[in-house]
Design goal:
By secondary structure, the chain is mostly helical. Helix 12 runs antiparallel to helix 13 and helix 14 packs antiparallel against helix 15. The mean pLDDT is 83.
């Protein structure tokens, strides 16, 4: 295996571990609550705190570390992540568990941002989109498989062993990065204000809103994917892991297709997928009347909604390289930052919809966000075309 493939593997490995650290907690909430002698509601705050800290800390850390050596910064941040994850494994109390989650969340987004910067440096223009898609695939796979992985390890051994496994796998990933990454890369630094100029660009503003509402679209129904499969479609609980695995495979397919789209048309080819997403979400309540039809709809939705990742990420990097080189690191973090904000918005909406109109019609909330996303991608493409012509 050549160095190029090993680098890709290392990047995917790191993002997968970051995703597992974030998402597997959902599957082991009951066990953590039992062993730490706190309520399930308190443990649920671990998920909320992680998302909030991730979203707030990522832009702050990326801006203030942009002046330092990229290679050394990445290794320091991964070391901090390793400490935070290991503290989760050995946390003697709820307070320590909360601290450990804050530590891990504070650097997770910045690590992904730095990986994106390295991609822009070491990958050719032709291969950049594919590598970006693979890196997002690592995180997407973890978002789907993190919960069943944590649940399986917890049921067979202990919830602490799930975190220990992530720490053990982080060490060789760290070693690969030390070996494979360039020690010095060309970087342009700027003041805090100079970097924030990026956010005044109308294309960037529309792009981050698109990332936010696309994530809200997905989590407007995916938050309740388990009850949708069991209570909604009537599948047995014993088949959940297999069904989630199938949905996870669709997420991998989506990321590969996302890379293809980024290389062939990019954002211009996305509107038709958003139209399909909107139609399926509107028809999902009827599709839930049939197991095969309902499962098929959920799998297609999973594939469609993550197609944005690579085209948008590549577009952000290109804007920064051409117009705001001092903010390249900030640009690389925007997708993950606002996707997490979107997750929070979508999850909150799903909970409200569940309480107000019930599980079967929960997709109507997601459909509203899908419509907003469709309008945003149309406006973004029109803005790009106008600036290209001028």
């Amino acid at each position: 295996m050549n160095k190029e493939r090993l680098r890709a593997l290392a990047f995917i490995w790191v993002t997968f571990l970051l995703g597992c650290n974030e998402f597997m907690v959902v599957g082991i909430l009951s066990e953590i609550a039992h062993y730490l002698h706190v309520s399930l509601t308190q443990v649920g705050y671990l998920v909320t705190v992680f998302a909030v800290v991730y979203a707030i800390s990522t832009p702050v850390i990326t801006i203030f570390t942009s002046q330092y050596n990229r290679y050394k910064t990445l290794l320091v941040l991964i070391s901090i992540f390793l400490i935070g994850n290991t503290l989760s494994a050995i946390a003697p109390s709820y307070g320590w568990m909360l601290v450990s989650r804050v530590i891990a969340a504070s650097v997770a987004g910045a690590i992904i941002s730095l990986l994106m910067v390295f991609i822009s440096v070491i990958a050719t223009k032709e291969k950049r989109a594919s590598l970006v898609a693979w890196v997002f695939a690592g995180y997407s796979i973890a978002s789907v498989f993190g919960v069943p992985i944590g649940t399986m390890i917890s049921s067979q051994y202990s919830w602490r062993d799930a975190f220990i496994l992530v720490s053990l796998l982080t060490v060789p990933a760290y070693g690969l990065l030390v070996w494979l990454l360039p020690k010095h890369v060309k970087q342009v630094t700027g003041t805090f204000g100079a970097q924030l100029k990026l956010l005044r660009d109308r294309r960037i503003q529309i792009g981050i809103l698109l990332a936010l509402f696309t994530a809200a679209t997905m989590y407007g129904y995916y938050t309740y994917i388990r009850p949708l499969l069991t209570s909604g479609l009537g599948f047995s609980r014993s088949s959940l892991n297999s069904l989630l695995f199938m949905i996870g495979l669709m997420s991998i397919v989506s990321n590969r297709w996302s890379g293809h789209l980024a290389k062939h048309g990019g954002l211009k080819r996305l509107p038709k997928y958003y139209v399909a997403d909107l139609v399926i979400l509107m028809l999902l309540p009827e599709a839930l009347n049939n197991e095969a039809l309902g499962l098929g709809a959920l799998m297609i939705l999973t594939m469609i909604v993550t197609l944005l990742s690579a085209p948008l990420q590549v577009y952000f990097l290109e804007i920064a390289e051409n117009h705001y080189p001092q903010a390249l690191l900030l640009a690389s973090s925007l997708s993950s930052i606002f996707f997490n904000y979107g997750i929070s918005l979508g999850s909150a909406t799903a909970s409200i919809m569940f309480d107000v109109i019930g599980l079967r019609d929960i997709s109507f909330g997601a459909a509203i966000y899908s419509l907003i996303s469709l309008l945003l991608i149309l406006v973004l493409n029109r803005t790009i075309k106008r600036q290209t012509v001028s």
